[in-house]
Design brief:
CATH class of the largest domain: Alpha Beta
Radius of gyration: 23 Å
CATH superfamily of the largest domain: P-loop containing nucleotide triphosphate hydrolases
Strand content: 5-15%
Oligomer: single chain
Shape: elongated
Distance between the termini: 60 Å
CATH architecture of the largest domain: 3-Layer(aba) Sandwich
Largest sheet: 5 strands, parallel
Structural class: alpha/beta
Number of helices: 16
Order of helices and strands: HHEHHEHHEHEHEHHHHHHHH
């Protein structure tokens, strides 16, 4: 099987259902500062040997990495192309990258194991592909670009293999390390790469993006997705396709109940939560967000109560434990409903 065919048939954890993959995405939302910094370095002919593209999940790190890769593979480290590093989608380089067939680009990520499931780590065999890739004769323009998505997922052996590449950087080679938590990377890796930080997106930016990406959604739904996204366009898009709004509204309804625990209703809610994709994780996050909003609203009215903060802490601990030991959704939702009902009776919420 050819390398391109193998790439194309690999399960992709970073693809959101119904949306283009970052290598197929040509619009970068709300990251003008990071894009401008990358453009200056590349167009001045002085890109670093490696960039750590850092920031929360879903804010455009991979999209920026592929934008950089397209430009460098099309124009090199020159000012020959547009100042915003854009390359048209119908350009031959863009088409090759979309097809995962450009000889000058290597994308490393977690692969499937023998059972067809994604591995939990990015292993050393994958990272060792860098040696042969950078050792090959460069094609047109003389540049090779490797994207590691994400570098946080490397195990120790893989990180050490990457470090060897960084210690002897290839000429006209560029490494783009995508990282959600750069503090987890080896200090020796961080010292040999420059940071390119991306920020959480403004609500209005996410709303504008969703109007383009989800044209059939109601305006009210798009705005609620923007509110729930915590600055992550990727999260907003995932929630749009994973019953996210429904779970968020269920969380608000639970918080709005009076101080009487309805066990049957709580168990039925737990059943619904359990049927959704990552339903318990999403529901817990939404419920904790809703409690935090309630605490802030009461504080703004001079009704602040330290007991409400205690409820928020208890729910945080409950859902962290649920994720750690895989608690049953019905039990977890019932426990959170009991916590909220008790807080309502005590006047804490």
């Amino acid at each position: 099987m050819s390398p391109a065919r193998r790439e194309a048939e690999t399960v992709e954890a970073d693809r959101i259902a119904g949306q283009p993959h970052p290598r197929e995405t040509y619009e970068l939302w709300g990251q003008e500062a990071a894009l401008a910094r990358a453009a200056r370095a590349i167009r001045d002919g002085r890109p670093p040997q490696a960039w750590i593209i850092a920031g929360p999940p879903g804010v455009g790190k991979a999209t920026l990495a592929y934008r950089i890769a397209r430009y460098v593979l099309r124009h090199g480290a020159t000012a020959d192309g547009p100042a915003d590093l854009s390359v048209a989608s119908n350009d031959v380089v863009s088409r090759q990258i979309e097809a995962q067939a450009h000889p000058g680009l290597l994308a490393l990520k977690r692969r499937e194991n023998d059972r067809g499931k994604l591995k939990t780590v990015l292993d050393v065999e994958e990272v060792r592909r860098l040696g042969g890739f950078f050792g090959m004769t460069a094609g047109a323009g003389g540049w090779r670009v490797a994207i590691i998505d994400s570098a946080d997922e490397m195990n120790d052996n893989a990180a050490n293999a990457l470090l060897k590449v960084l210690e002897e950087p290839p000429a006209r080679g560029l490494l783009l390390l995508i990282s959600h938590a750069p503090g987890r990377l080896l200090p020796t890796i961080r010292s040999r790469a420059q940071r390119l930080d991306l920020k959480p997106l403004d609500r209005t930016v996410i709303g504008d993006a969703l109007s383009r990406l989800l044209p059939d959604a109601a305006d009210a739904d798009r705005m609620q997705l923007a509110d729930l996204s915590e600055g992550s366009l990727g999260l907003a898009l995932r929630l749009a396709g994973e019953d996210g709004l429904k779970l968020a509204r269920e969380a608000d309804s639970l918080l709005a109940t009076r101080g009487t625990l309805d066990v049957a209703a709580a168990l039925a809610l737990g059943e619904r939560v359990g049927r959704a994709a990552d339903g318990l994780g999403h529901f817990g996050a939404f419920l904790i967000q809703a409690v935090a909003r309630r605490v802030r609203e009461r504080a703004a009215k001079g009704e602040g109560d330290h007991r409400a903060v205690g409820v928020w802490e208890q729910l945080n601990a409950l859902y962290e434990r649920a994720a750690l030991v895989h608690m049953e959704p019905r039990e977890t939702v019932l426990m959170s409903a009991r916590e909220i009902a008790d807080a309502k009776r005590r006047g804490a919420l």
